[in-house]
């Protein structure tokens, strides 16, 4: 046995020419990230585990760069696995099912492998198919819809490898499409089943049509009927641009349908997909095929979370790649397959940007397509995806930087070209996407010494500075400054751009010196300043502040505890002035005088005024405002609703279109959401603990002492649960109130504008309005999961039929997203 | 015992950082960084890259509080001594909400000497920083991040003999943003001048 093992080992190494060592573990995706680094520790463990790991490694690495051809590697691996089937069958099944689910970009490599195994061992083929069906049911039950797509696609490609009989595959598709006949289900459910069927056709359409053309025609016409009667209210909310030129932003099912139509017209000739099984046709066609068991799609469950609809992002067409291979047209199936594969690569490798970049750039078949253009388009498509990108924004920035490093001679130019094109189309770009573009572009520039041909964009200087283009440049420069310093920005832009340069982020003090002596708060500011410098206690300072006259007050007053704007003004201005040197100083200040601040701001008006003063002193340094507001919320000096009211107040109206306002608002909403989630989690944990306690008591028997103790504990837990329940309810009520405040303010502002325009017979579409209505959309999009809970209240109180239809449309589009 | 952390400027008014780093629900939290679980990666001391960071993740011990708060510190070293808290905050906020930044100081001069700790609220955010901010540039210099074993008072000071970072003791090249030559090289230079005649 041992000799056989050694012989196998040598043959593996010979055949595949790969030094099998534990380093492979580091790239092995089936092992969780944390364990990969410890792979070397396993070297000394028992042989069977070694063999299993080696099998996993071999299977995962097949198809990658190798000295031998893919076909010979597959042949060799099939031989090795066949020999290992008697002892490691379940492990091999598990690995193959996993790669089908997790490595979709190598779909055809693994289907070929399964095909070869099936040809050598019919029973194994049958067991694999059964395992796949089980896995498919599991993924659907667990809302893992994108993985389910990959599994179905894998099964459909197995038809090409003679593992599954075509008629049984068609039958499965028919069952999927019959979901469109279901009533009272969300549209996104039937959407998904149609999407799965259509997205498999590039791989298997030809084969299925050859065997079952009548059934396929019927299937396609059923799909066509469904697509025609689908509701598409949601589409405008998901489009990156509001204009249809130069590229229409198509809904994803419409685009795919057009691509499949074209494929059908081309008689299902598809030339892009790599199909290793063709080389093995003589072997595979001898194999016996299996029938898929009849698969009924699981019924709709109320907690099912189907994928949201998407819009296909296009920025390039075939005229944009100046030399080299031509980009496939937007309705060609090649475009779909390429984009799908690139999305899969990013999905698999997004956590390791170097690997991801390398994998993207070594895309098979790259010589026939303008790969750099596809990559850039796919990456931007994900970055701008609405409601939110599939992965964290900063990943895309570093991925693009990595790609530029690997292809310094070609990719930066494509990226620059794309940036230029995005700039040109800013006028119709969705505000949320512009935000992301600003963040991406400034971060990218900061990695390349801020080098950019700003003069190319001097057209933005000739228009109203509130228009999208100059606004974009202004916000980019502000973000660039945050990543460097003011003088740097002054140096990098031409002098003509001086109007767009951000303000020097300095503190603006109301009481700097004698020149302010006429102001009512001036003398007190000196006193307070000295008190702080002399390390007076909080009580002492409060006593000092009592002397501040209240401009609002009647003569017969109480302790002076009511809202005194001048007191707040004097104290906060003085304190922040002393602490203006850095973030750390300001945080220290807020921390040390927390009690005083809480006292001063113990009413709604107080909180509002506090924020107003904060803005006044730091209006040139939006970043500082944001971090101080964050601290004030976290230390409960102000609450979230106060911040929302402040941002929408008349005093801040002139800043309403600036990016920092919305960053503060969204950060505030996020803090509120996290707070609620945290308490809910505490409640769940306490409930679990109680349940465990109760189980223990039941199982432990009749020990009197134990009983008494555990009863006490249970009583304590129940009390705790009650308290936490109250906490959750009050937090949720605060959260609901926050959203109500925000939406109410939006409605007031937007309605005012619309009414004014109507009475003045002026066009409503000013830059301000576009910003405003899209910011409202943004609230829905960025916090859709939380807002879903409060739909009933929103509909009853705010988004009623009496609302202006422009505003109501946003609400209706949002509702349509999950229907 | 609550710890006071002085701010880092030797010139401006010294304001003491209150020990009450407020939690969202207003509970008092002492800055007791009890390391329950420590992930410590090997230092990546790379002579050619400019920065070394350490990131820390430590869970509050169950003895201390009812709730666990993930406190994560990125300890990062700058190449440029003049990097400011604000730039660091802006950059590291891209991977999640930053809780706190502590600038590393020269032990003797008490000025910034090119490293700092960045603390997050959750482990996931620190992981994102390791994945996507590590190895990119801040102020034109590559920065590196690594896991750290927890910030304790006193760790913000450089441990080189001259008060700055250890790597600046041995640096041979001239880097104006890092105070000129390395400390050892500076000691040797007078000899060279004498020999030039």
From TrEMBL, chain A:
Molecular function GO labels: mRNA binding; RNA cap binding
Superkingdom of this protein's organism: Eukaryota
Database matches in InterPro entries: ARM-type_fold, CBP80, MIF4G-like_typ-1, MIF4G-like_typ-2, MIF4G-like_typ-3
Record localization: Cytoplasm; Nucleus
Domain MIF4G: 52-264
GO CC terms, sorted: cytoplasm; nuclear cap binding complex; nucleus
Biased composition (Acidic residues): 701-719
Keyword Nucleus found: yes
GO biological process, one term: mRNA export from nucleus
Keywords: Coiled coil, Cytoplasm, mRNA capping, mRNA processing, mRNA splicing, mRNA transport, Nonsense-mediated mRNA decay, Nucleus, RNA-mediated gene silencing, Translation regulation, Transport
Name used for this protein in its record: MIF4G domain-containing protein
Membership in a protein family: Belongs to the NCBP1 family.
Keyword Coiled coil: yes
A Pfam family of this chain: MIF4G_like
Region (Disordered): 688-726
TrEMBL record, chain B:
Residues covered by region (Disordered): 176-197
Molecular function (Gene Ontology), one example: RNA cap binding
Pfam families according to UniProt: RRM_1
Domain RRM: 69-150
Location within or outside the cell: Nucleus
Family matches, as InterPro entries: NCBP2, NCBP2_RRM, Nucleotide-bd_a/b_plait_sf, RBD_domain_sf, RRM_dom
This protein's UniProt keywords: mRNA processing, mRNA splicing, mRNA transport, Nonsense-mediated mRNA decay, Nucleus, RNA-binding, RNA-mediated gene silencing, Transport
GO-annotated biological processes: mRNA cis splicing, via spliceosome; mRNA transport; nuclear-transcribed mRNA catabolic process, nonsense-mediated decay; regulatory ncRNA-mediated gene silencing
GO CC field: nuclear cap binding complex; nucleus
Protein's job: Component of the cap-binding complex (CBC), which binds co-transcriptionally to the 5' cap of pre-mRNAs and is involved in various processes such as pre-mRNA splicing, translation regulation, nonsense-mediated mRNA decay, RNA-mediated gene silencing (RNAi) by microRNAs (miRNAs) and mRNA export. The CBC complex is involved in mRNA export from the nucleus, leading to the recruitment of the mRNA export machinery to the 5' end of mRNA and to mRNA export in a 5' to 3' direction through the nuclear pore.
Family affiliation: Belongs to the RRM NCBP2 family.
Subunit structure: Component of the nuclear cap-binding complex (CBC), a heterodimer composed of ncbp1/cbp80 and ncbp2/cbp20 that interacts with m7GpppG-capped RNA.
Protein name per its UniProtKB record: Nuclear cap-binding protein subunit 2
Origin species: Astatotilapia calliptera (Eastern happy)
Gene name of the encoded protein: NCBP2
């Amino acid at each position: 046995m041992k000799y056989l093992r050694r012989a196998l080992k040598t043959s593996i190494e010979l055949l595949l020419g790969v030094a099998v060592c534990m380093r492979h573990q580091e790239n092995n995706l089936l092992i969780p990230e944390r364990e990969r680094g410890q792979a070397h520790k396993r070297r000394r463990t028992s042989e069977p585990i070694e063999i299993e790991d080696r099998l996993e490694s071999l299977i995962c690495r097949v198809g990658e760069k190798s000295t031998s051809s893919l076909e010979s590697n597959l042949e060799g691996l099939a031989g090795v696995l066949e020999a290992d089937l008697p002892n490691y069958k379940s492990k091999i099944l598990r690995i193959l099912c996993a790669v089908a689910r997790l490595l979709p970009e190598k779909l055809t490599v693994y289907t070929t492998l399964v095909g070869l195994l099936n040809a050598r061992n019919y029973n194994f083929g049958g067991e694999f198919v059964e395992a796949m069906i089980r896995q498919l049911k599991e993924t659907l039950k667990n809302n893992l819809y994108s993985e389910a797509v990959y599994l179905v696609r894998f099964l459909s490609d197995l038809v090409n490898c003679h593992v599954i009989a075509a008629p049984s595959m068609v039958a499965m598709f028919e069952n999927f499409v019959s979901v469109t006949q279901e009533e009272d289900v969300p549209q996104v459910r039937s959407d998904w089943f149609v999407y799965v069927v259509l997205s498999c056709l590039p791989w298997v359409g030809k084969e299925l049509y050859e065997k079952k053309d009548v059934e396929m025609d019927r299937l396609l016409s059923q799909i066509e009927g469904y697509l025609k009667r689908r509701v598409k209210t949601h589409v405008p909310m998901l489009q990156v641009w509001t204009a249809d030129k130069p590229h229409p932003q198509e809904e994803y099912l419409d685009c795919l349908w057009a691509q499949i139509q074209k494929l059908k017209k081309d008689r299902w000739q598809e030339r892009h997909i790599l199909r290793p099984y063709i080389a093995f046709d003589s072997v595979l066609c001898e194999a016996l095929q299996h029938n898929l068991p009849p698969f009924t799609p699981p019924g709709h469950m109320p907690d099912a979370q189907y994928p949201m609809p998407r819009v296909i992002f296009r920025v390039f067409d075939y005229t944009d790649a100046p030399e080299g291979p031509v980009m496939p047209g937007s309705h060609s199936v090649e475009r779909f397959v390429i984009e799908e594969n690139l999305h899969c690569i990013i999905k698999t490798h997004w956590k390791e940007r170097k690997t991801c970049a390398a994998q993207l750039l070594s895309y098979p078949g790259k010589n026939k397509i303008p790969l750099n253009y596809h990559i850039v388009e796919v990456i931007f498509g994900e970055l701008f995806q609405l409601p939110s990108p599939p992965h964290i924004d900063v990943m895309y920035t570093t991925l693009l930087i990595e790609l530029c490093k690997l292809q310094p001679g070609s990719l930066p130019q494509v990226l620059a070209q794309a940036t230029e094109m995005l700039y040109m189309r800013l006028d119709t770009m969705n505000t949320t996407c512009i935000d992301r573009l600003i963040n991406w572009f400034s971060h990218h520039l900061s990695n390349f010494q801020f080098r950019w041909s700003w003069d190319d964009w001097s057209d933005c200087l000739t228009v109203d500075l509130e228009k999208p283009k100059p606004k974009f440049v202004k916000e980019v420069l502000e973000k660039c400054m945050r990543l460097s310093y003011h003088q740097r920005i002054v140096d990098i832009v031409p002098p003509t751009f001086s109007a767009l340069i951000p303000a020097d982020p300095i503190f603006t003090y109301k009481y700097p010196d004698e020149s302010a002596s006429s102001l009512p708060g001036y003398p007190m500011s000196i006193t307070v300043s000295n008190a702080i410098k002399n390390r007076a206690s909080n009580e002492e300072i409060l006593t000092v502040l009592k002397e501040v006259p209240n401009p609002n007050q009647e003569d017969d007053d109480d302790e002076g505890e009511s809202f005194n704007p001048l007191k707040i003004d004097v104290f906060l201005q003085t304190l922040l002035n002393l602490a203006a040197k850095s973030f750390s100083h300001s945080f220290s200040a807020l921390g040390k005088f927390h009690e005083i601040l809480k006292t001063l701001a113990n009413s709604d008006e107080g909180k509002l005024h506090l924020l107003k003063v904060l803005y006044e002193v730091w209006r040139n340094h939006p970043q500082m405002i944001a971090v101080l507001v964050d601290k004030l919320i976290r230390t409960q000096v102000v609450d979230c609703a106060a911040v929302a009211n402040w941002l929408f107040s008349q005093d801040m109206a002139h800043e309403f279109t600036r990016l920092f306002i919305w960053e503060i608002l969204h950060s505030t909403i996020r803090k509120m959401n996290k707070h609620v989630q945290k308490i809910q989690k505490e409640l769940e944990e306490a409930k679990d603990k109680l349940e465990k306690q109760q189980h223990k008591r039941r199982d432990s028997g009749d020990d009197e002492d134990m009983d008494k103790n555990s009863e006490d504990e249970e009583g304590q837990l129940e009390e705790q649960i009650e308290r936490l329940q109250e906490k959750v309810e009050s937090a949720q009520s605060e959260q609901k109130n926050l959203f109500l405040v925000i939406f109410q303010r939006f409605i007031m502002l937007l309605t005012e504008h619309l009414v004014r325009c109507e009475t003045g017979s002026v066009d409503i579409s000013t830059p301000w309005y576009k910003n405003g209505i899209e910011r409202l959309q943004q609230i829905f999009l960025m916090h859709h999961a939380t807002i879903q809970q409060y739909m009933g209240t929103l509909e009853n109180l705010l988004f009623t039929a009496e609302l202006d239809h422009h505003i109501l449309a946003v609400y209706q589009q949002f509702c349509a997203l999950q229907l | 015992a609550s710890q006071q952390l002085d701010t880092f400027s030797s010139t401006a008014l010294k304001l003491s950082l209150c020990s009450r780093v407020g939690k969202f629900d207003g509970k008092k939290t002492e800055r007791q960084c009890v390391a329950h679980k420590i992930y410590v990666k090997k230092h990546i001391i790379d002579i050619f890259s400019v920065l070394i960071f350490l990131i820390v993740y430590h869970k509050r011990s169950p003895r201390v509080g009812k709730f666990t708060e993930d406190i994560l510190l990125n300890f990062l070293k700058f190449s440029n001594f003049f990097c400011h808290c604000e730039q660091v905050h802006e950059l590291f906020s891209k991977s999640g909400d930053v809780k706190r930044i502590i600038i590393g100081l020269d032990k003797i001069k008490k000025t910034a000497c090119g490293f700092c700790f960045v603390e997050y609220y959750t482990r996931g955010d620190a992981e994102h920083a390791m994945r996507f901010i590590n190895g990119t540039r801040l102020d034109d210099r590559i920065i590196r991040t690594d896991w750290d074993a927890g910030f304790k008072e006193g760790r913000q000071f450089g441990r080189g003999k001259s008060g700055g970072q250890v790597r600046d003791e041995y640096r041979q090249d001239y880097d104006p943003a890092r105070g000129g030559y390395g400390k050892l090289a500076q000691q040797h230079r007078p000899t060279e001048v004498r020999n030039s005649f």
